[in-house]
Specification:
mainly alpha, ABC transporter involved in vitamin B12 uptake, BtuC, globular
Length: 336
């Protein structure tokens, strides 16, 4: 009965609750950190032209960092939801299936061979790397008779990701840029600038907008290809566009914060328990919930050992690994 009552709650109320939670978490993130600030300081930094050390710190360091956390969390969560939908694989996640590793390896290569590239060019490099990672994983997973089974994709993703991480580290050692590569692969929001946001945010916004437009088709595709074909869906075209969206979102995320896994795995499972299996509801709720989770992880990383920072990738991994093992043990049905 309780579950039926939960399902009967209109989606708009659930989304509104998520947005309120996002606003609250954003406020906590802005107030937390090594430097103590007050609500008044944040208001002055965001809504006035006031100056001062604290105001400048909030405006130029903390605010762009937390905006980045919102967009990256949304991008990874939505890309994970799309991957799980089109592959019907409950273990799908951009960080586990080679996309973020591919983007990271391409980024390391660009830093070694073309260190003068601007941030926009580096972002395009990350998109290319994410595409290569996806091609390798799905290509290897489809080589054996039987097609792309969930376990085969995960194994291929683990192998390709390990190889691409090794490529990144090898490039770093060979070209003596290990420190720069490590800063990216650690998965952090340190040093995010307004200039970087101006490049990345439009890509992420475009990717999420396209996923919302195709959410109905994704719902049908997630049932089975036979059902989608029977309902007149252009399966190949829809899948191609959605894969491009995944690459866009994953590549943009890596360009901004480095390699992060598990957000795209955890959030869609939790969201399905709240809103059901309709991707018209899953996509927007995943965007909001992913932003909340990323803000929480970043805030925890900044405050758990203040004034030092714990890598946000480590915080997310500590939450995500037990979740991954639970989902794998239950066959992906724990939260769906």
């Amino acid at each position: 009965m309780a579950k039926e009552n939960q399902r009967s709650i209109p989606f708009v109320y659930k989304l509104l609750a998520g947005i309120i939670g996002l606003i609250g978490m954003f406020a906590v993130a802005m107030l937390s950190g090594a430097a103590e600030v007050a609500v008044k300081d944040i208001a002055l930094a965001m809504f006035t032209d006031a100056s001062g050390d604290k105001i400048s710190m909030i405006r130029d360091i903390r605010l762009p960092r937390e905006i980045a956390a919102v967009f990256v969390g949304s991008a990874l969560a939505v890309s994970g939801a799309i991957m799980q939908g089109i592959t019907r694989n409950p273990l799908a996640d951009p960080g586990l299936l080679g996309l973020t590793a591919g983007a990271g390896a391409a980024l390391a290569a660009a830093m070694a061979f073309a260190p003068t590239l601007n941030y926009f060019a580096l972002t395009l490099v990350c998109f290319t790397g994410a595409a290569i990672g996806a091609i390798l994983v799905f290509g290897i997973g489809a080589m054996k008779k039987g097609g792309l089974s969930p376990i085969r994709i995960v194994l291929a993703g683990a192998a390709v990701s390990t190889f691409l991480y090794a490529v990144s580290e090898g490039i770093g050692i060979l070209f003596k840029i290990s420190k720069d590569v490590s800063m990216w692969t650690a998965g952090g929001l340190i040093g995010t600038t307004w200039g970087q946001l101006q490049v990345i945010v439009p890509f992420i916004t475009l990717g999420i907008a396209i996923s919302l437009l195709l959410s109905r088709q994704l719902t049908i595709l997630s049932l089975s290809e036979e059902v989608a074909a029977g309902l007149g869906q252009k399966i190949k075209q829809i899948r191609s566009v959605l894969i491009a969206v995944i690459i866009l979102l994953a590549g943009a995320s890596v360009a901004l914060v480095g390699n992060l896994a598990f957000i795209g795995l955890m959030v869609p499972h939790i969201v399905r328990a709240i809103v059901g299996t309709d991707y018209r509801f899953i996509i927007p709720m995943s965007a909001v919930s992913g932003a909340v989770l990323m803000l929480f992880a970043d805030t925890l990383g900044r405050t758990v050992n203040s004034p030092y920072e714990a890598p946000v990738a480590a915080i997310v991994a500590m939450m995500g690994l037990p979740f991954f093992l639970l989902i794998a043990r239950k066959g992906g049905k724990t939260f769906s």
